[in-house]
TrEMBL record:
Primary residence: Golgi
TM spans (from-to): 20-39
Record-stated family: Belongs to the glycosyltransferase 47 family.
UniProt membrane topology term: Single-pass type II membrane protein
InterPro entries assigned: Exostosin, Exostosin_GT47
Protein name: Putative arabinosyltransferase ARAD1
GO molecular-function term, one example from the UniProt record: glycosyltransferase activity
Keyword Glycosyltransferase: yes
Length: 511
């Protein structure tokens, strides 16, 4: 029977065959198109998330016309500013060791700074750095140790591997921390400026039993930015592979097992980075931009550290910062009005403010409008609005700070970097989302701020701006040192927990 059927195939008539072929062709075309659309949306999503400022554009088609054309999704990585290790000359006049913000525990070892020696005894934090394979860190920047060196030579700041520019830089926190901690173990007394002038908050130790904290130098944000797409021949994207390998690596480590990972430091600063591994590695201390995409058991303020985004606009020097009367715009906002969640207040505010003459409320990315224009816009505005988007944080806040434009924070559950040592109310205005949505409330509030009051906040902004600078070589009180300081403070409570747990070690459980 079977054989017979095979021998007499029932071919459909030719016109049917043509129709069939057409249908198949149509199906394949549709499939190809949807694949393309999917990949495209993934890319723009990735871009979007990595760049609160930039991704905004494609979500507001109706409003972008005002500011220019659409941004092609996907090529946003190679944008505006180039990667420069020693970014921004903000030290001039800004670094004052007597600044009240830097309190004692932050710069323990101040003497170390002056004498040029920073060792395990004088530093607040002793850091053991895992020698992860280069693919987890500097190989992503094109560095190749050729099997000889575990780490790049960091003696010459101009010669260290560069981080990819543009909006990737926003989340480059792990890179700056890695460079700084590597430079702490340069041979003492070397002629090199990088070693001599380094602030002494954290120092690298190679003996694990001396370490306060174990630094896991995985450039998780860059891995997300770079490796989330499937490449040809891959069944799992590289970002996932690296995460799985990292988990395996750490679980094998005696140091991880001994303390359950609690004294380990991991830097998934991009809100979408380490999606797959974050739960497994959650006992560790994370350095994050916010808790928006974390469940409270995985990340929380008790164990984790909030770090600033690296700003994308140029920092203003103290002497070039326009004063009250030189800032004609009352309030400045740039971004999207439609956000996925928590961003409804933006749309509401747009309706309330769009017709005000001294309010600059535009929809577009920094890239689209140019870094220069954003710099100019913020530095000629008295207040810069910071409105909750799809994550509570964004680099807009840090752009405002370095533009000395008083941030108006309209986000009920934002977490701010270093808030245990910085009183943000001295240089920011906080407004509850519900209040901001009330007619006339915001403008009345901002117009009610007197020139003296504003100038006081402006003065404070100029003092604190340096705490939000990432740079290499790192300088006293910059973002890198502030993060080490925050980690050191948090380690006190981790140690308390660990020591308590160890109380009955000698007598065992039967006591
Ligand atoms: C930074 O500014 C200071 C003072 O304005 C200047 O002396 C120094 O050369 C500048 N450094 C760089 C790298 O531009
Ligand atoms: C590491 O430090 C501990 C404690 O000070 C010491 O006993 C040990 O000998 C050190 N190990 C090495 C390899 O130096």
């Amino acid at each position: 029977m079977v054989v017979e059927r095979k021998m007499q195939p029932q071919l459909p008539p030719p016109e049917h065959r043509r129709a069939l072929r057409f249908v198949v062709f149509l199906g394949i075309s549709l499939l190809a198109f949807s694949c393309w659309a999917l990949v495209n949306s993934r890319i723009s999503d990735a871009m979007h998330d990595s760049s609160a400022l930039l991704g905004d554009v494609d979500k507001t088609p109706a409003l972008t016309g005002k500011e220019g054309t659409h941004l092609p999704a996907g090529d946003s990585i190679t944008s505006a500013s180039a990667a420069v290790p020693a970014s921004g000359n903000t030290t001039a006049g800004a670094v004052k060791l007597s600044d009240p913000v830097i309190r004692e525990p932050l710069v323990r070892g101040g003497e170390g700074e002056r004498s040029g020696r920073c060792d395990a005894d004088s530093a607040a934090l002793r850091v053991y750095v895992y020698d992860l394979p280069a693919e987890f860190h500097f190989a992503m920047l094109g560095w190749d140790g050729k099997g000889k060196a575990a780490w790049p030579d960091v003696r010459d700041a101009r010669a260290v591997p560069h981080y990819p520019g543009g909006l990737n830089l926003q989340h480059s926190v792990a890179y700056w921390l890695a460079l700084d901690i590597l430079s702490s173990s340069l041979p003492p007394g070397s002629d090199d400026d990088t070693a001599r002038d380094r602030p002494c908050v954290a120092v690298r130790v190679t003996n694990a039993s001396l370490a306060d904290v174990f630094f896991v130098p995985f450039f998780a944000s860059l891995s997300y930015n770079r490796h989330s797409k499937l490449r040809r021949g891959e069944r799992v994207n590289r970002n996932r592979v690296l995460q799985a390998e990292l988990v395996k690596y750490l679980m094998r480590k005696e140091e991880w097992r001994r303390w359950g990972g609690k004294n380990h430091l991991i830097v998934p600063h991009h809100p979408n980075s380490m999606m797959e591994a974050r739960k497994r590695l959650s006992p560790a201390m994370f350095v994050l931009s916010d808790f928006g995409r974390y469940s409270p058991d995985v990340a929380n303020l008790k164990k984790d550290v909030i770090a600033p985004y690296k700003h994308v606009v140029r920092s203003l020097g103290d002497d070039e910062s326009p004063a009250f009367h030189q800032r004609p715009v009352l309030a400045y906002f740039q971004g999207a009005i439609h956000r996925k969640a928590g961003g409804k207040v933006r749309q509401k505010l747009y309706q309330l403010l769009k017709d005000e003459r001294d309010v600059h409320f535009t929809y577009g990315s920094v890239r689209q409008n140019g870094i220069r224009r954003a710099t100019a816009g913020m530095s000629t505005s008295k207040f810069c609005l910071n409105i909750a988007g799809d994550t509570p944080s964004s680099n807009r806040l840090f752009d405002a700070i370095v533009s000395h434009c008083v941030p108006v924070i309209i986000s009920d559950d934002i977490e701010l970097p270093f808030e245990d040592v910085l009183d943000y109310s001295e240089f920011c205005v906080f407004v509850r989302a519900a209040d901001a949505a009330r007619k006339g409330f915001l403008l009345r509030l901002l117009r009610g701020v007197s020139r003296d009051e504003w100038t006081r906040m402006w003065g404070r902004l100029k003092e604190v701006a340096r705490h939000f600078e990432y740079q290499y070589p790192s300088r006293p009180g910059d973002a890198v040192q502030m993060i080490w300081g925050a980690v050191a403070r948090k380690m006190h409570s981790v140690k308390l927990q660990l020591h308590k747990r160890g109380r009955f070690q000698r007598t065992g459980s039967e006591s």
